[in-house]
Amino acid sequence: MSYIGNSPRFTDTPVLQVQATSGQTAFSLSWTPASANALMVFVNGVQQRPNVDFTLSGSTLTFSTGITLNYYVTVFGIGVMGIVNTVSSGSIDSSKLAINSVGTTNIIDANVTPAKLSTGAPTWTSGGAVTMTGDITVSSTGAVQVSSGTTAQRPTAGNGKIRYNSDLLSYEGSDGTTWKPLGMSSGKAFYFGGF
User: Fold this and answer.
1) Percent helix, percent strand, percent coil in the chain, to nearest 5
2) Residue 195's pLDDT is what?
């Protein structure tokens, strides 16, 4: 079975078995139980009641009456197991994680580097604008496809915007106020309109 962090470490049940001296009441244990209820105590095979026939203080068990000479006192620790340590920082590796268990909410903003992105053809789906800072360089023999639409579908004008007008069969750009044709398309020359 797999565990996050260290596996539980079950230990042997601690036991004390001694012969009492005449009238002996106090016995030292080699471990410190959580309470008297964590002990099973027998005197010559007769079970003793916690907090009635005996009490516990730290690792010292004390009987309410002295034990007869050479009677056997047997003490079992119950419910004892090793401590499960707190998981240390950096101790969980990828082999401990289920496939697809890490989602976008688990990734700190700005912590995905270019090396972690696909080198194929990723598709971004966004209902709004995607804003990027810095220069964009496309190193390939392919092409960059800009948005295309009719004159009626023009978005709000804005400095530096470029699109393809499917009604005019040409590229057009915005100066921040209006849309103006750019360059040449389908053998038709268009005025640059101040660009």
Assistant:
1) 10, 30, 65
2) 45
